[in-house]
Amino acid sequence: MHVHPYERFWMWAAVAIIVLFIVTMGAGLFGQGIRPPSHIETIDPRAVWTDPRFADRGVTTNADGSVTVTAIAMMFAFNPSEIRVSAGRRVTFRLTSPDVQHGFQIVGTNANTMVVPGYVSEFTTVFDSPGEYLIVCNEYCGLGHHAMMGKLIVEAAP
Amino acid sequence: MTSARRLATANIGVAVGAFAIATGMALMQALSRANLDLPWRSAKMYYLSVTAHGVLMALVFTTFFIMGLGVWLATAALERPLRAPRVGWASFWIAVLGAAAASWAILWGKATVLYTFYPPLQAHAAFYIGLTLVVVGSWVWSGVVIATYRAWRAEHPTLPAPLAVHGLLATIIVWLIATVGVAAEMLFQLIPWSLGYVDRIDPLLARMLFWYFGHPLVYFWLLPAYIVWYTVLPRVAGGKLFSDPLARMVFAAFIVLSTPVGFHHQFMDPGIAAGWKAFHAFNTLWILFPSFVTAFTVLASLEVAGRMRGATGLFNWVGKLPWGDPLVSSVLLSMLLFALGGFGGAVNASFGLNSMVHNTAWVQGHFHLTVGSAVALTFMGTAYWLVPKLVQRELELSLLAKVQPYLWFVGMNLFSLANHITGLEGMPRRVFDASYLGAAPAAQWRGLTGISAVGGLLLFVSASFFLLVMLGTVLAGKRTEPPVVAFAEPLEGQPPARGLWDRYGLWVTVAIVLVVAAYAVPLAQHLHMERFGSAGFKPF
Question: Residue B36 pLDDT > 90, yes or no?
Answer without folding.
Answer: no
